[in-house]
Amino acid sequence: MNARGALGRYGEDLAARLLTEAGMAVVERNWRCRTGEIDIVATDGDALVVCEVKTRRSGSFEHPMQALTPVKADRLRRLAEIWLARHGGPPPGGVRIDLVGVVLPGRGAPVTEHVRGVA
């Protein structure tokens, strides 16, 4: 695994822990199909959550929360539809797309931010 992959994996580990601590249950990580990848699939009560994780080092060009473009949001919606079709359809609580941004400062603890319902 290269340095970028390791950084992304570390951010996803932190995001999974954050979601779990918020009372969610992680169902799957790094689910892939021909259309792309979902970083984390989780449940929040009776809702399904498709979670995109963006990790950046402090001082990088853009904040991770700015990385969810309209094109990326559309792709996440398509990926959620494919995941649901392969896993029995939508749950009673519907589907939500969340974003977790992780910033790794030069010193100190990582800073995580979870935004619900971004797309």
TrEMBL record:
Annotated protein name in UniProt: UPF0102 protein RM649_13775
UniProt xrefs under HAMAP family: UPF0102
InterPro entries named in the record: Restrct_endonuc-II-like, tRNA_endonuc-like_dom_sf, UPF0102_YraN-like
Provenance organism: Streptomyces salyersiae
Family to which the UniProt record says this protein belongs: Belongs to the UPF0102 family.
